């Protein structure tokens, strides 16, 4: 949820002003409040090898252990085995002609592995640690390395309110770093760079939002050479939270501004290439899907300034000029 400091100018005016020189594109509504079967906590978008896109919170606001397919809108999976399961992120993986999905359960500090065989889905606890803050979001490498972010919301954040973990292909967790409040996480197309958002609150609202980029060893998962990729102080929108992030095969990074009614497209060098305007205020996550992998699906709770936890989940779409990284990898491309 976005909080503005007293005396600041209205949110939408801020976004439009700072991005006035950036090309703006309107997203199209695919699922709206009149036909949505998702709850207000919709996010965690992920694509499978057929281009189908999925999201968490299929159902109402109380159904947090559910995963749903976006088109058509239908229940994909519901965890009924572990108390308090609350999914927040999802990724698909194909290995040895078998399809798996990894779902982040932020309440139970674990990642659940789903083995998918047509209509039959079995689950097991894949990677977990009581020391994980959540996890919040996931990034998945070609080799099966899972990177996890976590976020602890406080009115006044401090160091250690966010973390970065990696899970080996066998499910062994390792904490890589403690940070401020982390959220969006994604890999570059060659798996050699990792993007991670970090934010901080003061007096109940965001006052800092930036994206870090790390060098990655694709074989071991080790990170190094941490650098600022983009600091939103530069365009005076540091008070708008980053949420989900995804890359396309050109290496462009797409970033949701949760509260800013937009998704920003960055070049690999950190230049803003485009602003994609959503039909709702709080876009939470994104993923590329569709038959060619070029359709950007943007999810979030419907409406303009709908309060946190209220309403239903919406989905917008926008056509990109290149397929998304996850879709491309699932087609067995190098």
UniProtKB/TrEMBL annotation:
Keywords: Hydrolase, Signal. Residues 125-298 form the SMP-30/Gluconolactonase/LRE-like region domain. InterPro entries: 6-blade_b-propeller_TolB-like, SGL, SMP-30/CGR1_Lactonase. Residues 1-20 form the signal peptide. The keyword Transmembrane helix does not apply. This is SMP-30/Gluconolactonase/LRE-like region domain-containing protein. The lineage of its organism: Eukaryota, Fungi, Fungi incertae sedis, Zoopagomycota, Entomophthoromycotina.
């Amino acid at each position: 949820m976005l909080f503005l400091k007293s005396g600041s100018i209205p949110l939408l005016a801020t976004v439009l002003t700072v991005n006035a020189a950036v090309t703006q594109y309107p997203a199209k509504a695919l699922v709206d409040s009149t036909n949505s079967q998702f709850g207000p906590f919709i996010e965690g978008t992920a694509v499978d090898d057929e281009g189908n896109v999925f999201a968490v919170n299929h159902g109402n606001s109380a159904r947090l252990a559910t995963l749903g397919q976006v088109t058509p809108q239908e229940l994909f999976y519901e965890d009924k085995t572990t108390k308090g399961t609350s999914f927040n992120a999802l990724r698909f993986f194909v290995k040895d002609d078998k399809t798996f999905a990894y779902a982040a359960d932020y309440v139970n500090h674990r990642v659940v592995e789903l083995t998918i065989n047509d209509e039959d889905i079995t689950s097991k606890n894949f990677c977990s640690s009581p020391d994980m803050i959540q996890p919040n979001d996931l990034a998945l490498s070609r080799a099966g390395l899972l990177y996890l972010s976590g976020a602890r919301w406080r009115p006044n954040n401090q160091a250690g309110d966010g973390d970065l973990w990696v899970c080996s292909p066998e499910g062994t967790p390792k904490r890589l770093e403690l940070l401020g409040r982390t959220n969006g996480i994604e890999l570059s197309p060659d798996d050699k760079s990792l993007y991670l958002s970090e934010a901080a609150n003061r007096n109940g609202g965001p006052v800092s939002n930036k994206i870090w980029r790390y060098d990655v060893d694709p074989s071991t998962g080790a990170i190094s050479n941490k650098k600022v990729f983009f600091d939103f102080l530069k365009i005076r929108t540091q008070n708008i939270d980053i949420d989900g992030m995804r890359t396309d095969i050109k290496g462009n990074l797409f970033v949701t501004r949760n509260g800013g009614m937009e998704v920003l497209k960055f070049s690999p060098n950190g230049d803003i290439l485009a602003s994609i305007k959503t039909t709702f205020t709080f876009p939470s996550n994104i993923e590329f899907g569709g038959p060619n992998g070029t359709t950007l699906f943007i999810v979030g709770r419907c409406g303009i300034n709908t309060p946190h936890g209220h309403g239903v989940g919406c989905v917008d779409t926008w056509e990109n000029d290149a397929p998304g990284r996850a879709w491309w990898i699932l087609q067995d491309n190098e």
